[in-house]
Every structure is written in C-alpha cells, then in structure tokens.
Amino acid sequence: MQNRIEVTKSVPQERWGEFFDQFSDGNRGRQISIEIISSELGDEKLIENAPLMAMVYDRPGKGNDLVIETGRDEVTYAHTVDAPTEVFTGQSESGRMLAVWINDATGIKTLVKLQPVEP
C-alpha cells in the first residue's frame, strides 16, 4: 500500500467553508496528527493518532480562523489557525486524502496528516 502524497491541490478561499464541512463529514473519526511548521519557532508535533471530530472555518468578518477539533463524543483537543491564507490538500495517486496544509498570515504552516484507511 502506498502512502506517498502524489497530488497536491490548492483549495480556493471562497470554497473553504464548504470544503471543511465536507472534509469533516467524510473523515470524522479518522485518526489524525497535527504538526506546526515554522521557520522562526521550529517544528512541533501537537497531537498524534487522535480521532478527527471537525474542522470549522469562520470566514473573515466572522472570526477569520480555522479550528481543528479532535475527539469522539466531545472535543478533547482543539487547535486554532488564526487568519489562514492558503489551504492545500495532499492525496495519493488513487485520490485518497492523506493531508491538509494550512498556511497562516504569520507564515506558520499547520499540517494535518490523516492515517491511511485500509481499502
């Protein structure tokens, strides 16, 4: 089984609300890890092997942030990306979602890796 990211796609900002709603619905309960990548602060793994609950985007004027929540029946961990500027998805050759990168206004990248799902 290949877990290499083969395809990277940019998600247009006007579709972020719809994208994160669909992403949450399609991947709820899937194990994820969250990592911060910053040239100034260094890289930091925030959480590993936690079930995705939701990714909630509030557009500019309504909060301008993205909250990544983990947990099964209640939120056990939440990470907020303030003022996101770019969203990219990483997929396998077969189109299976493997990762989401979110860049913010300060240059910090948040990487959400999804654990592979057996076919």
Short description:
The chain is mainly beta. 10% of the residues lie in helices and 50% in strands. A hairpin with a 6-residue loop joins strand 2 (31-37) and strand 3.
Overview features:
119 residues; mainly beta; Protein Yojf, Chain: A; eight-stranded antiparallel β-sheet; 1 helix; 50% strand; globular
Structural commentary:
By secondary structure, the chain is mostly beta strands. The chain has one domain: Protein Yojf, Chain: A. 10% of the residues lie in helices and 50% in strands. The protein is built from 1 helix and 8 strands, in the order βαβββββββ. It has an 8-stranded antiparallel β-sheet. The longest helix is centred in the first third of the chain and has 12 residues, at 16-27.
% residues in beta strands: over 45%
Report the CATH topology name.
Protein Yojf, Chain: A
- State the order of secondary-structure elements, H for helix, E for strand: EHEEEEEEE
Overall strand count: 8
Mean pLDDT, to the nearest integer, reads 91
Tertiary shape: globular
The number of domains is: 1
Describe the strand arrangement of the main beta sheet, using strand numbers.
1-6-7-8-2-3-4-5
| End-to-end C-alpha gap | 9 Å
Helix content: 10-25%
Class by helix and strand content? Answer: mainly beta
How many H/I helices? 1
Contiguous runs where pLDDT drops below 50 for at least 5 residues: none
Largest sheet: 8 strands, antiparallel
Can you tell me the CATH architecture?
Distorted Sandwich
Name of the top-level CATH class: Mainly Beta
